Amino acid sequence: MHADPASYGLMASPVGELLLSWSPLGLSRIRFGGAPESGIPLEPIPFGAQQQLEAYFAGDLRQFDLPLDPHGTAFQLQVWAQLRQIPFGVTMTYGELAYTLGKPKASRAVGGANHHNPLPIVVPCHRVIGADGRLTGFASGLEIKQQLLDLERRALARPSA
Q: Catalytic residue at 128?
């Protein structure tokens, strides 16, 4: 059961302003570059989501621990759950992701589910790349996808404290 997203908050990030929305059940959406429609009140972001995102961008958080309330089909929810299993700093092809879902011929459907991922960054669709190793298909633009992958590579390359 999903509650409708009712609340919105904005936060700055290295990849631009993020608009977060949530329901009482959890975070529902992250949108790049955007203020909400005029007249929608902005609220403080709950669940520690802003703090976790800031820690991610600082290279200090590798796995999010947030209540999530994404809206999608059963297949999309399955793909998004599998995306959360891709380790920080690791990439996987659409075909490999389809295979892990037990649907080895569904790479295009996996790509479609990725495109509709309402929670980029937290549900790391940016870690999925084309079969030839190139960046493909990031709804918010390949430049942001590259920035997120570079951030993760830099964090992994840092000496541990």
A: no
